[in-house]
Amino acid sequence: MGRLTAELWLPNLLHKFTDAGWEVAISKAEPPLTEEILLAEVAGVDAALAHNADEWTERVMDTATDLKVIARTGVGFEHVDIDAARERGIVVATTPGSNAETVADLTFAMMLALSRKLIANDATLKRGEWAPILANNVHFKTIGVVGLGRIGRAVARRAAAFRMNVLGYDPFVEAASLTEAEVRGVSLDELYAESDFVSLHLPATAETTNMVDARVLAAMKPSAFLINTARGALVDEAALVAALQSGEITGAGLDVFTTEPAIDSPLIGMANVVASPHLAGNTKETMEITGEMAVDNALAVIAGDWPDEVVVNGVYSGK
Hints:
Blueprint: E1 3-6, H1 15-19, E2 23-26, H2 35-39, E3 47-50, H3 58-63, E4 69-72, H4 82-87, E5 91-93, H5 100-115, H6 118-126, E6 142-146, H7 150-161, E7 165-169, H8 175-180, E8 184-185, H9 188-194, E9 197-200, H10 214-219, E10 225-228, H11 237-246, E11 251-254, E12 273-275, H12 284-303
Parallel strand pairs: 1-2, 1-3, 3-4, 4-5, 6-7, 6-9, 7-8, 9-10, 10-11, 11-12
């Protein structure tokens, strides 16, 4: 029926294509796939399962003349040239909601680890010292959730269970909806100034790039923590390093970085930073759910019948 390109991280799901008579071409390269790798592999491909950082450029799409769908695993699509895909009638599909609860889990894990000084106390014990480091509560504190989509709302639900005061900012969410979710809508400036934890849940766009800059960090409480499990581009990393060094804020939990892999980032070596390698949305369970949804999206697009809510570039089935 068609030819598919995929990466090695979806081996247990590709039988859905072979069962339907598809030819499956698996890239030998490790993700993410660069433009040059894709240019050499996409000729004759009808559908692609794409890693979040694969470089689906206009040049790649011009080479993939049979391409009908790029099925992303996850909700991000900043490395896909959306305009080029739309012009060519190529559907770009994501997996909305598939990892929202998982990202919210790690967001809260970082908040708890930072506030309770879990990493520092663990390190002390492992050095053979019994010297408890006094920490702070999370319950009853104020959290500011920037972006109230599926992930932001999942974080807000967890915060409510900890009896936290939940502030929220999202210009695309109606005030009545925020009230129903027990979130008090405020301006960004008010959120930064009042929050003990600021948690980011926005896509990387021209408008949001470096939105957390030196001005914002200076406006936050000296006792506050910044949590970013969304996109590295949201934070001016040089400004964050300076703020953490000077004590303008107390700490940060970071799952994402401006440049990845971020092995050499000065942030990773800081004692007041808890860091992880862009895995907030990845657990064994969630990767299975997300992968299966991406596979089903690709098959549905080729069949001409797919749910419009997974399409991010305005190319619809017309059903």
